[in-house]
Fold each of these.
Amino acid sequence: MIKQPVPTVSHSSSTVTQDPPQIKDSPAVERALNRSKIYLLISWSMLYPEDDEFLDYLRSGEFVEDGRGALGTLEAMLGGHGGQRAVQALGAIKKQFDQVESLVASECASWQLSDLQAEHRRVFSNVITLDCPPYETLFGNDHVFAQSHVMGDIAGFYRAFGLELSKDIHERLDHLSVEFEFMHFLAYKESYSRCHDGPEKTAIVVEAQKKFVKNHIGRWVPLFCRMLAKKADVGLFKLMADVTAEWIDFETAFLGVTPQPYTETDYRPATFNAPEGQTYECGAQDQGNELSLLLNEVGAQSFMEIKEKEQDHGNAGPVGTA
């Protein structure tokens, strides 16, 4: 969903070699890169498998291997960030990856693509299931008008970083996989910014992560994970529900944010009746979008304007398509 160009490096014709620049905060870069990896693994695992690519990744053992590697590096580089709660969450996720490995060895190793697709349909169905819908706007919004406002805010985050939904992905902006890939991109962008940009640009990316976790995934994903674990009961998606729940616990501790998570009573299918005494305007308003507020808070222009200026000077960071 997100395509990131490989940075090109120009070499001088001089025979004099120079030592590579020292990264100011290598542990912070490693934390960002490996958080990015975990977000990507979870994102990929929740998508409907259109081809053999994810299944091959799972059966080969690389899915578990990459997850363990990222978790191990995070644990080694944590440096007290997130406190004991973050440490405990990482430990729980490592045990869950052990269970994924056992499942792959005992069941998934012999799967064909049709088996993985059937398991996905069993849990998520062919239409939007009300048992565990992987869409943010179905949580905490009584009315479709509120859903549209939340969807507009999500779209505002994506636009602020020059991202749009890939035509190859047949999902909505508020699908868990899309939101998690956005967080993958932000964490990856943070690692790049820490190496190449100044503190102001790094602060924008870090604060964007905090706001998106606090006001979006940190609110609805914990309830979704409980619903998914109940619906799946056993198998790959039950384990990934547990992984995802612990990962959100880690992230909220690591980022130091306190979302107000939805409860079972907050999950109600939306109606088309406007709230009494309220009118509706399409989409999120510019002043109400969280990224607009964030950019104003740090005294920055929109990320797209920054990106255009960087491109003019040949110093653009990674951009892509969500």
Amino acid sequence: MSFISIYYVIFVAFLNLVFYTVPVRGRIKVILAGSLLYVFLYSKGAALWLIGAVLVTFLYGRALGNNEEGKGRAAGLAAVIALLIFPLALFKAAGVWDGWRSLLVPVGISFYTLSLISYAVDIYRKKYEPERNLVSFMVFAIFFPQIVQGPIARFDKWKKNMEAGRRFDYKEFTFGWQLILWGYFLKFVVADKAGIMVNTVYGNYTKMQGLYIAVAAALYSIQLYADFSGCVNIALGTAQTFGFRLSPNFRQPYFALSIRDFWRRWHMTLSGWLRDYIYIPLGGSRKGTVRQCINILIVFGVSGIWHGAGPTFLVWGIFHGACQAAEVVADKIRKNKKDKKPGMIGMGVRMGITFLLVTFAWMVFRADSLSHFVNLIKNMFAIWNPEVILDGDAYYKMGLSRLQTVPLVLGIVSLFGADFLHEKNISIREWTARRPLVIRWVFYLAMIMTVLVFGTYGPAYAANQFIYGRF
């Protein structure tokens, strides 16, 4: 049952009804039952991999909690991590990710694996006591909104979430559904429409050269952001309808002033996981600049491999690591100089450079192979055709009609307009909540109609699954 299916909306609405109908003490069991049902519907028999991983990690925590003398602690942790990583490494390396996904690969394996590893390591470090309630632990591990693409959960934060949630709150409930609607808007109106243009150019780069490729590369940056954040917003919104708050995963990433700043804003739960469980254990920045740069390269190499087994993903990760290492060295050189806060022009220049570097890296990420990427770069500089920017008709060669291009442009403006307001700490949902009931519902209905009328789906396009669902 995909997030982009009408059946998902019906499923969430029905589960909301059941959840708030049963007594408070039984609501956690409703969430567990709904999550198990969702996982089995989505992954079929492959869900057994997930259940097995959850049980192994839970029993490890119980065993470690009962082992007061600490015998075999390191060996036990290593064994559990190996058991958790093995299926993920097997499915990626064997190249069966696409063709056999429904039979072999449980939904969200890349995400729940990291959540379970973080729990095992935290228990080993005695950060908190092992969970003794299997129901609570299973909900942490397989809570259905976050199982597809995260955010990556940490048990200590989730435990507080569980203790705070469950009771009905009208504001939280409506805010949740607003966020779900915004997620669908980003997916159908922005991401999938941009994807048509990206796919057209990337598949015909020998004919659509020059600025066609540059425009497609920029559109892919927007497509990926709208697609991934759209899915995460649906996940965050779904959780909020039940009174739970998941960790945010994005904070206006294309307003970043550097690559390091970008990774403080993009896929924040993955960045935090890599920092806490790989970068810091390697020594972080405590062992000198050279060692720090090596640690950064290792971390982003791991990030690239996590995204996919192909060389394009590794190159993408190493490129981001190299950019961050260069920024570390530059900061060391400038440390004795007075660091002036950049003005508006300076911030705009840094933001633009960061976007160009990120977009260049996304070209590697999107390419089918390294040779495909090299050919894209060659053809992008093969000719100079400014009419792609100046002549509106050029865009319609990229797969969309005039009528379809207008809502894409307005959708992109809406996306970055919302990000600008959030960057200024202006909450659109809070502003909407203060409007009269009639105005609020006019706004909701307008958003629903926008998604239904201007969204890219149906037999003509066969709406795509979320991009990060492949990783």
Amino acid sequence: MVTKSDRLNDRELRAWRGFLTMQDDVRRHMNRQLTSEAGISLAEFSILSALRLQPDRPMRVFELVDTLKWEKSRIIHQLSRMVRRGLVERRASEEDGRGTDIALTAEGRGVIDKALPLHIDHIRRLFFDVVTPRQLDMLADLSEAVLENLEGEPFDQ
């Protein structure tokens, strides 16, 4: 038997469905924009951005997992596609020689340098231009509260 606590009320349902739909639609728009304007997917952009933020050194796969919060297998498959496209390269680890480092290639750096300003402009037009400063602060507070709650949860990776 389903009790009232087993169901979301109308307010909760509206908020939850809106959040999920917004998240999916924003990602879909971002992916289309990056594909048409920069020739890369949102997944490729995410990895290239993470590597670009570490300009002085390559990253290990586990660092990408920690940074992006993706499944390791997803990152490995994505990296394989990106290696074939010449966007990143695998190297023997400079640290210990046992692991593998992932580094931007010159082509990958060029692609992310072109994509970044286009992506930021699109984020502003799609997202920030339609919310008030108060709504933006509320969204930041909400995101931080939920993320803090998730920290102690199992299956966080």
Amino acid sequence: MNAIAPLPFLPDAVIFDMDGLMLDSERIIRECLAQAAADLGAEVEPEYWLGMVGRDDATCRQMLRTRIGDSDAEALLARSYALYDAILQDSGIPRRPGIGELLELLATRGIPRAVATSSLRERALHKLRMAGLLDYFDTVCTASDVDRPKPAPDVYLLAAGRLQVAPAACLVLEDSPTGVRAALAAGMTAIQVPDMLAPDAEVRALGHRIVASLAEAQRLLEAWL
């Protein structure tokens, strides 16, 4: 990691991505997609699944339709959702390290918090409840609530509007390049905590802060608190 510049301000609100940032779910999702492909005899190279990280349901669905055809894509998605839901019911959803401590700090200091996720609304709310995180947030904004998914800024602008905070006064925490681009397009300050996708030179050139963990992100905030 390069040297990380301190935050230039104490944000009026912090907006969180969900999968891969707060929930250790991206890896499980990709494993279920790969297992479903194997079960159905669909030939999809492992690297293909990484292209879906940070993308909304409709985009991933279209990617699969283009890759293996409409009917096979629908069968694969149905199978992967069934596998994923079975894992959630059996084992729950693991949190990413440090998320509980960070949310507790923000709640104690009275800093407003929102979720801005590419997941559909009912699935997002279900996962946040299962992980015991839903009550930490003032609002949850999802792909169901906007016309354009990430990397368009819509879901982040919606979150700022619901919190009644100017976009420029918001801090975003994201794991994926797609989400970082959405946050920057909304005029917000972004910290990336990479999960499955390491930031390449093109992503680093965006100029945002990149940290190794949520604990590091918390230290950047604590400098102002």
